[in-house]
Amino acid sequence: MFPYELTPPLPPHHHQPLFPPFHFSHWRAVDDRVRGGSSVSHLDPVEIDVSGRVTEVSADDDDERKERDVKEKKTIRGARFWGTLDIKTLGGAGFASQVYRYGPYPLHLPRTEYTGISLSVLPDPSLDTTTKSSSPDDDETMKPAKPTRYTLVLKTSPTSNIPKHPRVPAPPRAAQLSYEASFVVGSPPSSSHCDPSSSEKGYQAKGHEVILGWNAFKAFYRGREVKEGEARWVPLDTNSVYEISLMCRSGFGEQEGEFGLIVTSIDGIRKADNETEKEKVVSSNWLSWWWSVFVGWICSWLRWDRGIRLTDEEEGDMDEKAGLFI
């Protein structure tokens, strides 16, 4: 099981777009070739029409036509994350990823305003990831599955620059803590998935919406999960995201081969307006209570020992008068 949800799209006002625009020239491949592997990844611009057909386009395609088609809802612009996941070179291990670095300032998604990240995704229709049934004696049962599991990775500390055309093998990057959340996107559905009345939950004209709450992101270091309480563990700080990446990894031999994922958007998920207002009210009430306590303490201190003092004779007279009413 993976800590994600496949749901109908959220209301538009709950989204803070991160991509698009995808700024394709700013993405860089970080594959297992940095460790001597053979996996490779790409991120290319594509268009998806109302029938679900995906067409590769140039990053500097006719902007006027593109804008007109998008406005008329003839097409949806997106990114195709694709490549080959190899596990033989490194003996079962392998990964391929595309990385986007923020700079000079990090991405700011404070928990007080955002609950996580959503991705609108679609299986690559050019690939068939269905698993063929086979008998127990068939060798096919021993082969890894075709890739359907992907990972969104966040890094919250400054990262090193990634050259656009690194030498092979590329120099390894300095190891640092990352935060990862995985999700599965199955084989491309039939053309009926574009029908809004389709009964299959999550399918819309542009596919699934994957919801990743902040708690879905687990800390990892050098491919190993770091549990809370371990010396290296640090909670996810969403105020400073320096790097975001899409990854397809083997899971130590669980999947391999050609992979493809269409991403039409990546968004920050805003808190609902009423939830945000409720937090503001609670915060305001809490501050008001502390302020009243502080002011009361100051006033009581200023009044301390400053009342009218009675002489001993006056106090005695008051006691006698009080005794008359007993």
TrEMBL record:
GO molecular function terms listed in the Swiss-Prot or TrEMBL record: unfolded protein binding
Annotated region (Disordered), positions in chain: 120-146
Compositional bias per record (Low complexity), positions renumbered to this chain: 123-134
One of the GO BP terms on file: NADH dehydrogenase complex assembly
PANTHER family associated with the record: COMPLEX I INTERMEDIATE-ASSOCIATED PROTEIN 30 (PTHR13194), NAD(P)-BINDING ROSSMANN-FOLD SUPERFAMILY PROTEIN (PTHR13194:SF19)
Protein known as: NADH:ubiquinone oxidoreductase intermediate-associated protein 30 domain-containing protein
